[in-house]
Design a protein that fits this description.
It contains six helices and no strands. The chain is an all-alpha fold and 75 residues long. The chain has one domain (3-65). The longest helix is centred in the C-terminal third of the chain and has 15 residues, at 51-65. It is globular. The mean pLDDT is 94.
Length: 75
């Protein structure tokens, strides 16, 4: 799954700062993937998320914003 697609959904459907909050909450996962904070906050089309990162992001969205990330965004 492309990180940029989820970031764009967050920007459009939650708030432009939502993605940055999600990155900060899951910074250890992003760092383990080899991404710095600047890179994680501004993903590009080649930045792919693994299953563990997607699960953590979905859980963060649900916890912080009480909404579900639509499955269509993950398709």
């Amino acid at each position: 799954m492309n990180a940029l697609k989820i970031k764009e959904w967050c920007d459009a459907n939650i708030t432009p700062m939502a993605w940055q909050r999600i990155v900060m909450k899951n910074l250890d996962l992003f760092k383990a993937k080899g991404w710095g904070i600047t890179e994680a906050n501004s993903p590009n089309e080649t930045m792919m998320l693994d299953a563990a990162m997607i699960t953590a992001i979905k859980n963060s969205i649900k916890e912080m914003y009480q909404i579900e990330l639509p499955e269509g965004v993950l398709a």
